[in-house]
Amino acid sequence: MFQHVPVALVVELVTDLSGVDPSAGWVCRVLRETADVLAGVEKLIRTLLAAAHILHVDETGAKVTGARWWLHVSATEKLTTYHLDQSRGRPAITNLGIFDGVTGIAVHDCWASCNAYTDCEHALCGAHIARELIAADETHRGQYWQPKP
Asked: Domain Transposase IS66 central: where (predicted)?
């Protein structure tokens, strides 16, 4: 999972590290300005991810002000980008800005919204397959494959 750091804790951290007591507004402004400065870098990362030969994509639920949102991730061995969206479906994946340009291999959990993209090859994620097999074993104890004649 990931760590949410409330603004008040960031203020406390900056105070502890620097001896300066910033306001919550200052922290929010610095975050906005930093995001603006890094927008070009983020666009470049997304372009490079879309051009990757093998691209891993996944999503996980997260609580945002008490509501369920989805954190979508797209990654290679060296690059990662995230997109937080209220939707888990194809519109959110499109908003991530990766899949529409992918022509390599997309590794994912076989979710239908990912399978809908047809310009790339699809591969199943080994971690997801392992989880499914473990769940099948735990759910259906004592069931075995039919022996070959």
From this structure: 3-146
